[in-house]
């Protein structure tokens, strides 16, 4: 098996060991004579796969019993609608912190369902930092506060959890879930598309405080109703069975790495290595405020943008893939999620130094 280092922001690199195990188990899952993707979702075998994945996630994230874990579809983008459908009828406006492209999309979708209020935005500063805690206060009447702890495109990450008192806190953790320990009880609803730190695209994870379930807007489809999904074990319809199975394997792998606390240490080391290489050079630059730099997505620009194509081509030849920045911002971006080994970041840093020497 020849695998390079894939720096894509998502779908992202998955652990090689998980790919290997999935390959071995693919045609015949545990002596059933069937692939896991051929199992009925209602069969005891598949229910054990789903429950096993949930149990491992609960252990990894220390999720209390009064939170439901839902395996949904439609990506994080559908959650931009599901959240207001499920929480806005509690009354009051939905409040938001605007720190980049994904916040903007969440705000826009929620606006279809009721009043939205942006409490603070860093748009005027080019989204080069997160909102600071002293820049907003949550309305006592708000239905919830939504924020994006890690802006995948901008490479901006919050270094604190907003305080919202009794107002539910909703976090789009698509690009930072499982990357560092969090206290789940600081949040009321967490959602994440799977294709970065969880598994393949097609699966969306929702972790929601059970006391919030039930007050949905009346025309909410059952498939998007958290209470209906919770009551039906995430099987209002056929769930993305193979993606759930793979997520379970990724959770196993993460446990084997020592869990979230251990991976946080490695993630911090990877990010420090890369930012240090960027900061030491005149040739590369990252514009984000130091205290809000993302550990997962590291955008950088070359002093001479004319060299972008050459940088990408030579990186590809060196087995370093998908380093182009998001089309809306240009430049480069290295996404270094849990499955990216330290060796991959070392390889990138060595390549960057070498490229600078030859072209700087
Ligand atoms: N939110 C964030 C923070 C993201 O990074 C992404 C995807 N890159 C999305 C939402 C949208 O996710 P999806 O494509 O799964 O709908």
Automatic annotation (TrEMBL):
Its EC number is 2.6.1.52. GO terms for biological process: L-serine biosynthetic process; pyridoxine biosynthetic process. Homodimer. It is found in: Cytoplasm. The modification N6-(pyridoxal phosphate)lysine is found at residue 196. Gene3D superfamilies: Aspartate Aminotransferase, domain 1, Type I PLP-dependent aspartate aminotransferase-like (Major domain). PANTHER family: PHOSPHOSERINE AMINOTRANSFERASE. Its main location: cytoplasm. Keywords: Amino-acid biosynthesis, Aminotransferase, Cytoplasm, Pyridoxal phosphate, Pyridoxine biosynthesis, Serine biosynthesis, Transferase. It is an enzyme of class 2 (transferase). The keyword Plastid does not apply. The keyword Transferase applies. Catalyzes the reversible conversion of 3-phosphohydroxypyruvate to phosphoserine and of 3-hydroxy-2-oxo-4-phosphonooxybutanoate to phosphohydroxythreonine. Pathway: Cofactor biosynthesis; pyridoxine 5'-phosphate biosynthesis; pyridoxine 5'-phosphate from D-erythrose 4-phosphate: step 3/5; Amino-acid biosynthesis; L-serine biosynthesis; L-serine from 3-phospho-D-glycerate: step 2/3. GO terms for cellular component: cytoplasm. One of its GO terms (molecular function) is pyridoxal phosphate binding. It comes from the Bacteria. InterPro entries: Aminotrans_V_dom, Aminotrans_V_PyrdxlP_BS, Pser_aminoTfrase, PyrdxlP-dep_Trfase, PyrdxlP-dep_Trfase_major, PyrdxlP-dep_Trfase_small. It catalyses: 4-(phosphooxy)-L-threonine + 2-oxoglutarate = (R)-3-hydroxy-2-oxo-4-phosphooxybutanoate + L-glutamate; O-phospho-L-serine + 2-oxoglutarate = 3-phosphooxypyruvate + L-glutamate. Binds 1 pyridoxal phosphate per subunit. Residues 5-345 form the Aminotransferase class V domain. Pyridoxal 5'-phosphate binds at residues 76-77, 102, 152, 172, 195, 237-238. Belongs to the class-V pyridoxal-phosphate-dependent aminotransferase family. SerC subfamily. This is Phosphoserine aminotransferase. L-glutamate binds at residues 9, 42. Its cofactor is pyridoxal 5'-phosphate.
């Amino acid at each position: 098996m020849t695998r390079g280092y894939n720096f894509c922001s998502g779908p992202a690199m998955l652990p090689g060991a998980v790919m290997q195990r999935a390959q071995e188990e693919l045609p015949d899952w545990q002596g059933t004579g069937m692939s896991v993707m051929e199992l009925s979702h209602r069969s005891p075998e598949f229910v054990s796969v789903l429950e096993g994945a949930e149990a491992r996630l609960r252990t990894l994230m220390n999720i209390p019993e009064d939170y439901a874990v839902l395996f949904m579809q439609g990506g994080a983008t559908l959650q931009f609608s599901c959240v207001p459908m499920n929480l806005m009828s509690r009354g009051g406006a939905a409040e938001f912190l605007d720190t980049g492209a994904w916040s903007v999309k969440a705000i826009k979708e929620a606006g279809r369902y009721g009043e939205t209020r942006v409490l603070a935005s860093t748009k005027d500063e080019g989204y080069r930092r997160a909102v600071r805690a002293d820049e907003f206060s949550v309305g006592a009447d708000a239905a919830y506060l939504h924020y994006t702890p890690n802006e995948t495109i901008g490479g901006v990450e919050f270094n604190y959890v907003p305080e919202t008192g009794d107002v539910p806190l909703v976090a789009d953790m698509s690009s930072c879930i499982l990357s560092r320990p969090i206290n789940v009880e600081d949040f009321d609803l967490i959602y994440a598309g799977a294709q970065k730190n969880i598994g393949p695209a097609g699966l969306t994870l929702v972790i929601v405080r059970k006391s919030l379930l039930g007050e949905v807007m009346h025309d909410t489809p059952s498939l998007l109703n958290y209470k209906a999904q919770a009551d039906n074990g995430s099987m209002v319809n056929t769930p993305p069975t193979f993606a759930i199975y793979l997520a379970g394997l990724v959770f196993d792998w993460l446990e084997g790495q020592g869990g979230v606390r251990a991976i946080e240490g490695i993630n911090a080391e990877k990010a420090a290595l890369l930012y240090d290489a960027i900061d030491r050079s005149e040739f590369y630059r990252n514009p984000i405020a130091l205290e809000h730099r993302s550990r997962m997505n590291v955008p950088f620009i070359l002093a001479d943008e004319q060299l972008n194509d050459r940088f990408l081509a030579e990186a590809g030849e060196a087995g370093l893939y998908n380093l182009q920045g998001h089309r809306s911002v240009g430049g480069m971006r290295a996404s270094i999620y849990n499955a990216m080994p330290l060796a991959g970041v070392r390889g990138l840093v060595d390549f960057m130094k070498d490229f600078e020497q030859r072209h700087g």
